[in-house]
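Bit of a strange request maybe. I'm writing a small parser for structure token strings and I need a real example to test against, not something I typed by hand. Could someone generate the tokens for this chain?
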Amino acid sequence: MTTLYDVTPDDVEHILAVSADLKERMKRGDRPNLLQGRVLTLIFEKPSLRTRNSFEAAAIQLGGGSVFLTTQDAGLNGRESLADIARVLSSYSDVIVMRTFSQSLIEDFARLSQCPVVNGLSDDLHPCQALTDLFTIRETFGQLAGLHLVYIGDGNNVAMSLAMAAAYAGMPITFCSPDGYRLSDEFLSSVRSHVPTADLKLVADPAAAVKQADIVYTDVWASMGQEAQAEERRKVFAPFQVNAKLMAKAPKAARFMHDLPAKRGLEVTDDVMDGPQSIVFQQAENRMHLAKGLLVWLLGVDHAG
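Reply from user aminoacidic:
Good idea to test on real output. This should exercise your parser:
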């Protein structure tokens, strides 16, 4: 799964259902050995807290094992051809998770691999995060279809994956970003071509954007690789901070989400992150439960208990 377009809405429903079942079983102390003898290989070019630990914990809790490689360890720095690396590593692995700058690197590797390859994050997309977000929203609200998701901030990989996920789930989604940082018309057209019923809007004013929000979502203003732009972005994005004043303009039942890591005091204030409307840490925990569901689904393992 290099992009959400690699799965269907029915696939997404199956993954969410398996994730929910395995989370409930874990609450009861049941950690079935569904992945016993299976090997998860992680190849990471970017540092990670949630993506690495959630997948490793998922594999271990389900009886499998994991191997972690940097891109240098794997030879993706040019030591070997991509075809040779993919052929060798996929012969050792049941699933490979990659976290890179380049989306095309993940897609090329997946075409050469003999086992499933999962996009753990690229500069373009973050599909596992978006699936986790759907899982968390449904867990919180009991449904997906019809809920209004409002994303405030940079039109980045998280925003793009949320657009795709919301379209699959029948959720209207509004994006509120400064000029020059919005999702491109080309990308929005591609979502609509894949999902003609997609309800995607662009709004300039954060206060107007959140007026009917069920979920208010934000992300860092400068992602990995954009450190040199951080000061400039701080000035541009300052009016788009999610703070108590902005949340007060949303319905009282609205919930706040952030994929983390957060730059507290920049894109979001402490009173929102730690406030009663925040489901950020539920969302973070669910990265592991979603990873379980995704791995079990990818490998076609019977999870019935």
